[in-house]
Amino acid sequence: MSTNEFPHESFDDLIAANTEYQETFKYSELTGSAAKGLAIVTCMDSRINPLSVVGMRSGDAKILRNAGARVTEDVLRTLVLATYLLNVNRILVMPHTDCKMAENDEADFHKLIDEQYGVNTSSLEFRTTRDQLGALASDINRIRSYPLLRDGVAVAGAIYDVKTGKITPHEG
Fold first, then answer.
1. Which end of the chain has less neighbouring CB within 10 Å, N or C?
2. Per the domain annotation, does 10 fall within a domain?
């Protein structure tokens, strides 16, 4: 196997799609900085195209994704780098409607995974919440009060509606 082959045929469709992508690739002039000064913290849900949602394109913003769009230690670490080194001067925290992370309790996920797959995940914190707006306010405040972020960074929150594409601002 050469170094540019995946070890499993499950990825053949990705390699084929990438070959087509390369034919029209137009991003070679972009830098690693956020051209529009924005970082978006959003969910890993595949219904969300974070750049399109806010009218941006590749190179305009930094995108941080995880289950539930929660502000974790890793998100804070990444935002510190982004605000000092990658031109980020505003941060949008953007969870979404119809999110499983906002419809279940922590214990529900642990139980489901254990019962269906026999895996004990109790050592993990999934950061679920049934109070999505409260969690959003808390996460916004967590970023605003984080002492290592660059001064002057604007932080806001909005809920993305997966059925309409609308974002509704929410203050923290």
1. N
2. no
Residue type, 147: P
In a domain? residue 151? yes
Tokens 């979404």, residue located? 96
Q: Coil, strand, or helix at residue 154?
A: strand
Element (H, E) at 115: helix 106-117
Tokens of 93: 């925290």
Task: Identify which has the larger pLDDT, 36 or 4.
Answer: 36
- For residue 154, give the CATH number of its domain: 3.40.1050.10
C-alpha closest to that of 75 among 57, 56, 95: 95
In a domain, 138, yes or no: yes
Going from the C-alpha of 109 to that of each of 106, 121, 128, the distances in angstroms are: 6, 9, 9
pLDDT in tens, 137-160: 999 999 999 999 999 999 999 999
d(CA 140, CA 41): 10
Number of residues that make up the chain: 172
